[in-house]
């Protein structure tokens, strides 16, 4: 699988004929005779090759006048792995569009965040995806509208504005154009029992590419959970979310073929952003087959991959929050890091309401933490300086960590801060910024695993040995960590 796969007609045809779900999200099949577009794994009989054309995005299919298949629902397929493994302009733009920036700030806001002109971004997206930023955002609004129509009992006017449409008429026209059904027709197709009558509460299924090993993914999130902000309850990882229009609470439960997602939102306009951030936290748009095939080529890693394939990188819903927690975790145990974070949350976190009662606060914002008296922080003076410098830079905007970050540039800026060494910068790159090739050769657990497996254990030698694992070294870290009996590696009981 590679960039621009939709132009490789023979490969696309083979994927469609075999109904290979691994390719869902990589490209879309538009059928000339029916005017619909499908995911590669659509269960219907494949059309004749001469009646198929392939597009790189759902938005490109919609721009070309095709409607979404009612059978395979291509708009709900996992996102392309391209946007999470690349750090170029198109990938960074796609991550921002998924995070709702075009809806909130327009194309000029998107351009300002990326440091390019709006015309250049339009040109790059059109060249690779067949659709510009407005069309891509429109496709996302259509999917959000469908989710709200099918999972809530909200009036259509409320859904229209919650999904980001400027008017009810635009909402109606878009839904009809994309799905060949009116919003009322969409709702009529859903059994009554599947709709939530609770305002702001939604139950969704988050798809992923198989295999997915939930052990280290949910184990890591649960073992490092900060009391009040996160918890493991009844088989679900739950946490509070700081979102553009308000706050929310999410519960995520792993299943064999999807992640069950229960969202309670203060403002339904935050739905697409909340979904996007949860997907990023769980690394659901990864291509595990490509990752595992690369790592399996190393005879030392092959047994680890074969034993538990499909490991993901546990990430975050808030890059600034994770950076702060990484500093709190410097040279201390997981339990001590949780204790430090819990104190900050109790003293400075914004209170929230949770219907289930276990979650009480949002993690403090950089602005709130920048106002903390340094003398009140129970940590060594040097780490206190590291902490106050970081939150000060985050609060004043001189350091920005987000989905749009250029990974090498962000890493260099972090390393320039006092008290930031390679481990802190790389763990932020791996788990907050999403760099799939971030590596932690100085990590104690990695060095211990390397010694036990017969790999070089010095950072320089291990880094040289790990060059064969590129561009997936962050995933190799997960397999190496999993050789240990630490709670982060096990799904909580």
The poorly predicted ranges are none
The helix tally amounts to 23
**Helical amount among residues, as a percent range?**
40-55%
Average pLDDT metric:
92
The biggest beta sheet reads: 5 strands, antiparallel
Could you tell me the number of beta strands? 9
- Beta percentage is 5-15%
The rough form would be described as globular
Spatial extent as radius of gyration: 23 Å
Strand order, biggest sheet?
5-9-8-7-6
What is the CA-CA span between the terminal residues?
36 Å
Q: Structural class per helix/strand content?
A: alpha+beta
How is this structure best described in words?
The protein is α+β, with helices and mostly antiparallel strands and 493 residues long. It is 46% helix and 9% strand. Strand 1 and strand 2 (36-38) form a beta hairpin. Helix 7 (133-151) crosses helix 9 and helix 15 runs antiparallel to helix 20 (422-431). The longest helix has 19 residues, at 133-151.
């Amino acid at each position: 699988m590679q960039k621009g796969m939709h132009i490789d007609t023979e490969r696309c045809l083979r994927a469609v004929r075999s109904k290979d779900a691994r390719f869902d999200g990589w490209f879309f099949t538009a059928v000339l005779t029916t005017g619909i577009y499908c995911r590669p794994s659509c269960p219907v009989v494949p059309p004749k090759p001469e009646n198929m054309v392939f597009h790189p995005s759902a938005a490109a299919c919609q721009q070309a006048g095709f409607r979404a298949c009612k059978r395979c629902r291509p708009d709900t397929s996992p996102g392309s792995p391209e946007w999470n493994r690349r750090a170029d302009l198109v990938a960074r733009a796609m991550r921002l569009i998924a995070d709702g920036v075009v809806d909130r700030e327009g194309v000029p806001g998107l351009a300002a965040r990326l440091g390019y002109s709006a015309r250049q971004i339009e040109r790059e997206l059109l060249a690779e995806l067949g659709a510009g930023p407005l069309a891509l955002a429109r496709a996302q609004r259509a999917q959000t509208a469908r989710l709200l129509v099918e999972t809530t009992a909200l009036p259509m006017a409320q859904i229209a504005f919650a999904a980001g449409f400027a008017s009810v008429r635009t909402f109606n026209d878009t839904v009809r154009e994309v799905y060949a059904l009116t919003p009322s027709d969409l709702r009529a197709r859903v059994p009554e029992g599947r709709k939530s009558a609770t305002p702001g509460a939604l139950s969704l299924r988050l798809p992923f590419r198989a295999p997915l090993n939930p052990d280290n993914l949910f184990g890591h999130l649960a073992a490092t959970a900060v009391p009040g902000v996160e918890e493991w309850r009844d088989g679900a990882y739950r946490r509070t979310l700081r979102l553009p229009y308000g706050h929310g609470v999410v519960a995520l439960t792993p299943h064999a073929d999807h992640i069950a997602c229960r969202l309670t939102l203060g403002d339904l306009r935050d739905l697409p952003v909340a979904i996007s951030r949860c997907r990023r936290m769980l690394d659901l748009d990864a291509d595990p087959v490509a990752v595992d095939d690369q790592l399996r080529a190393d005879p030392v890693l092959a047994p680890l991959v074969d034993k538990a394939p499909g490991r993901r990188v546990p990430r975050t819903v808030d890059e600034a929050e994770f950076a702060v927690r990484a500093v709190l975790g410097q040279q201390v145990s997981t339990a001590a890091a949780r204790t430090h974070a819990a104190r900050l949350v109790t003293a400075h976190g914004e209170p929230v309401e949770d219907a289930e009662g276990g979650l009480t606060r949002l993690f403090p914002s950089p602005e709130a933490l920048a106002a903390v008296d340094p003398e009140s922080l129970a940590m060594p003076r040097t780490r206190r300086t590291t902490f106050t410098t970081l939150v000060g830079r985050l609060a004043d905007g001189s350091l920005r960590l987000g989905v749009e970050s250029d990974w090498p540039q962000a890493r260099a800026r972090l390393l320039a801060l006092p008290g930031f060494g390679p481990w802190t910068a790389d763990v932020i790159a791996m788990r907050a910024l999403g760099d799939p090739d971030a590596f932690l050769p100085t990590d104690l657990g990695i060095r211990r695993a390397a010694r036990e497996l017969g790999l070089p254990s010095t950072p320089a030698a291990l880094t040289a040995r790990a060059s064969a694992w590129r561009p997936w070294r962050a995933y190799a870290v997960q397999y190496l960590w999993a050789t240990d009996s630490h709670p982060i590696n096990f799904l909580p009981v």
